[in-house]
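One such shown below:
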Amino acid sequence: MIEEVSKGIRKFLDEPHEKIYLNMILIVIFSVIYYQLYLNDQTSFMVNEQLLKEKDGKLDYVDFLYFSLLLQFTLSFGDMVPFTKEIKAVSSVQSLIFWAIALY
């Protein structure tokens, strides 16, 4: 069964542009997840004070799109850092999915 799933995934992601499209979709999906988790708990991220000053103390969706994009491609500037267990778990899953796609 695992072999069949693996073959299906390889067939779906056999062209480079398909991997790019999937990564773009995942960036948006995970950014929505991060934003919803942030709305439920605004202490879920450690955020640079300068960034918060510019935003009047609250982050918006674009900040999480930015975070998701940088995380997806394993970049980070340290201005937003996962703080709670939930955010750390979700960001770990996002990184693992990226590498699974990249290495297939």
